Amino acid sequence: MISRTFPKIMYGGDYNPEQFPKDIWDEDMRLFGLAGIDIATVNVFSWSLNQPDEETYEFGWLDEVMNKLHENGMYACLGTGTAAHPAWMARKYPDILTVTTDGKKRKFGRRHNSCPNSPTFRHYAEVLVRKLAERYKGHPALLLWHVNNEIGIRCYCDNCEQAFREWLKNRYGTLERLNEAWYTRFWGHTFYDWEDIVLPSALSEGLSGGNSDQTAFQGMTLDYYRFNSDSWLACYQLEYNAIKSFIPDAVVTTNFQGNGTYKPLDYFKWAPYLDIVALDIYPENQTPESYMALRYDLMRGLKDGAPFMLMEQTPSVLNWKTVNPTKRPGIMRLRSYQAVARGADSVMFFQLRRSLGAYEKFHGAVIDHAGHEHTRVFRECAELGQELKQLGNQLLDARVKSKVGILFDWDNWWAVELGGGPSAHLKYVDHIQKYYVAFYDKHIQVDFIHVETDLSHYELVVAPVLYMVKPGYAEKLERYVKNGGTFLTTFYSGVANENDLVTPGGYPGELRELLGIWVEELDALHPDQKNQLVLQTNLGELQGTYECGLLCEVVHPEGAETVARFGSDYYAGSPALTRNRFGQGEAWYVATDPSRIFLRQWISYLCASKGISSPIAAHAHAPKDVEIIQRHKDEFVFTFVLNHSEQTRKLNIGTYEQKELLSGTNVCGDVDLLPKSVAIFQQKKEAESCGSFGA
């Protein structure tokens, strides 16, 4: 729960009153009231306004805004303002400016322009935040804190280089251990002095091809990525601690970047230091619903199932794509409820009033340039605001329960794509998404888990492309499977350790005994090349021959059963899908990238064998464009049904009467779901599960 004093799902968004004359502010308050807005994120980009020079701090304008919010029954999500430093700071202290991978020092401009290891940035950011916390610690409008904004730029300056050396000393202790981890005897790179270590940039380790991720020493680049994520986390913690020193019970967060799978920061490592996780997400009209669903589930998984905040979305239109169409009627509401269904305890926008100039003047807002309530977008926002008010606190802190865990690991993501592997077309998140969709299409709820997660809660654990096996994780998986769990992994797994050093003795390295196989070769296929998976035995719907591609491995069973074989090429007839009985459970390995239909049918078989089903009924056959998810709270289960299609769908919920929360009606039997509509059914947990879907 975001705040135990707040009685409903938060509704609001970013508000920049400093960009407008004060005589507009009262009109904003009136319009916010009409729209049901109850929280405004303020002061996100106001450092230069709050600190016009080195010695002066001016918060008068912010006092007025905070007071006006309170007087109008609204709360503030107070930004720390450190997302863009003032121009005078860049002029006087150039160490604050970032350096690109090719060695160019940026000048003042845009945002995300501060170096995380700049002494100037850290000093002035902490002073500013302490002044804010001291000033507003007792303000009745203050509900939570928003540190910086969409953190994560990488910097390659001298300060970062020196800080990297210190980080490495703490990690390895000795140069001998560092040289071993980085395999520096390759190309004669052995280090004998810490000062000889430079950042793995385009100036040092960059390879041809224009991809700064591809370097000659992947272990070094992997450590730089870890260091950069840790550097920004240290900056966040500096502000976090400054707030907590004045307000120990403050709720502090930052908004995770873009679309939830943001490569530069290890969100699992950050999550313990956020009082609640917050996400900004900006899908396009044609973005599949499963894309957003994955990112919401990932945000929920960062804190082991705790609700998160939907901090930013657009109510209508984007402004930075090549073409920026509007959200069609009903889509904003539908996608907002998708986030709520998957664990969000807030619905917030960027932005509440459209800017009049600069980069984001055409970005969507609740209040358009017209400046009044007589627009389609405002009406839709007001209708949603009324519904969220009607729902009250019924859904707050409700949890999603899953029997499937999908492993997501930032270290593994970085290592898979650092270069030197079999194919540049191999993208870690794409394969996570592909396996996720196989569950999504079957309306089966999943959790995203990390290497420290207790696996005993799950009937099935899936780890696509588990290239990196961290210390102790193979043993953890073995215990899980021995105790009856089912484990699934794929090609290019068990290859390397946490330093991106290949595990000797043959792939899949430490997973070899669990999987009961060893891999002799990895054959990379061009995008237009295909092979075949030929089933040796029927597994439910899974039978016959299926297409596969990207990678094909030459696998030798060492106790594992061959379930499918390759259909062509020199490894025709060799195992492509294996199952290894291990203790009371089983471990599956697919040695290629199979078609989506294969994945759907395979996942369906595995879930059926483990008793994992849709939350509606054991054999629900809802169409894929209807989304089903459940949240649990106290004695109630809340079933969200979202019809993403353009057709009316029919849902039979059986004879047990349930309350549909948005209409306020009691329903049973057949229920029509209108196009682009949402229904939330409430029932007591002891009630009999009922119903099935039909088109």
Give a structural overview.
The chain is built from 17 helices and 28 strands. The chain has 695 residues and is α/β, with parallel strands linked by helices. The strands form 4 sheets. Strands 10, 11, 12, 13, 14, 15, 16, 17, 18, 19 and 20 form an 11-stranded mixed sheet that branches. The two termini are 36 Å apart.
List the helices and strands and how they pair.
Blueprint: E1 10-14, H1 25-35, E2 39-42, H2 47-50, H3 60-71, E3 75-79, H4 87-92, H5 119-136, E4 142-146, H6 158-172, H7 175-182, H8 218-246, E5 252-253, E6 255-256, H9 267-270, E7 278-280, H10 289-302, E8 308-312, H11 331-341, E9 344-349, H12 376-391, E10 404-407, H13 410-416, H14 428-440, E11 446-449, E12 460-463, H15 473-482, E13 486-490, H16 512-515, E14 517-524, E15 531-535, E16 545-557, E17 561-566, E18 575-582, E19 585-590, E20 592-594, H17 596-610, E21 626-633, E22 636-643, E23 649-652, E24 658-660, E25 665-667, E26 670-673, E27 678-684, E28 692-694
From the structure above, extract its key features.
alpha/beta, 28% helix, globular, disordered C terminus, 17 helices, eleven-stranded mixed sheet, 695 residues, nine-stranded parallel sheet
List low-confidence stretches. 688-695
Query: What does the radius of gyration come to?
Result: 26 Å
Shape by Cα distribution: globular
The percent of residues in helical segments reads: 25-40%
Domain Glycoside hydrolase family 42 N-terminal: 14-391
Pfam family, one: Glyco_hydro_42
Protein name: Beta-galactosidase
Family: Belongs to the glycosyl hydrolase 42 family.
